[in-house]
Specification:
VTT_dom; mainly alpha; transmembrane helix; cell membrane; membrane; DedA-like; 223 residues
């Protein structure tokens, strides 16, 4: 009877929803692949982008435990390349397939994300919406093909997705690295820290939404 090699068994048993499991199985390469899938392919909307980046940065310090060791330089490159290439790929897919691609999706979360992405584009304009979407799970997946389907100018999309993608991918990774370097036994607080960093990443979107609603109320009162 054939036996499965130990390394292959560990990869087959990986939990794609758990950042440490992904990193333990695939390392830096896994970060790049997940970033690409989450931002470029609609099937990747459920992947843990925020927590993966933060956890990967933390593990670069050697304080994350679990025998996972990562190098910061290659990690930053993999995260940035995956995030930027994924978004551009998603945009091109949307440009070719139009809205039919999103319409065929059966996930309620996916359709809700598409609605929020379209609302972002209409409310804040292309540049601000593309940057803000990076910090909102699911929305960062569907906004890219949606932008392509809506014929957002390729130059405008590319410039702002690169800016937003670098701030998101490099920023979250360095945040994990900074905290891992400064807090002893940080692995004990990993779940709390991941929840905190995800919440903090939503602040720009929340602040912009608050300002937009205040402007709308002011305009209504003035009208």
């Amino acid at each position: 009877m054939m036996t499965t090699p130990v390394w292959m068994s560990s990869q087959l048993a990986v939990n794609v929803l758990d950042a440490r499991s992904l990193l333990g199985a695939f390392g830096v390469l896994g970060v790049g692949v997940v970033m690409f899938a989450e931002t470029g392919l609609l099937i990747g909307f459920f992947l843990p982008g925020d927590s993966l980046l933060f956890t990967a940065g933390l593990l670069c310090t050697g304080n994350g435990g679990h025998g996972v060791g990562l190098s910061l330089g290659p990690l930053l490159v993999a995260a940035a390349v995956g995030a930027l290439a994924g978004s551009q790929c998603g945009y091109l897919i949307g440009r070719r397939a139009g809205g039919a691609l999103l319409a065929r999706g059966r996930s309620a979360r996916l359709h809700e994300g598409a609605r929020r992405a379209e609302d972002l584009l209409g409310r804040y304009g292309y540049a601000k919406a593309i940057v803000l979407a990076r910090f909102v799970p699911v929305v960062r997946t569907v906004l890219n093909p949606l932008a392509g389907a809506l014929n957002v100018p390729v130059r405008v999309f590319t410039v702002w997705q690169v800016i937003g993608g670098l701030v998101w991918s490099v920023g979250l990774t360095l945040a994990g690295y900074a905290l891992g370097s400064s807090i002893p036994n940080v692995d004990r607080y990993l779940l709390l820290l991941v929840a905190l960093i995800v919440a903090v990443s939503l602040i720009p979107f929340g602040a912009e939404l608050y300002r937009s609603r205040r402007r709308a109320k002011t305009e209504e009162a003035g009208g």
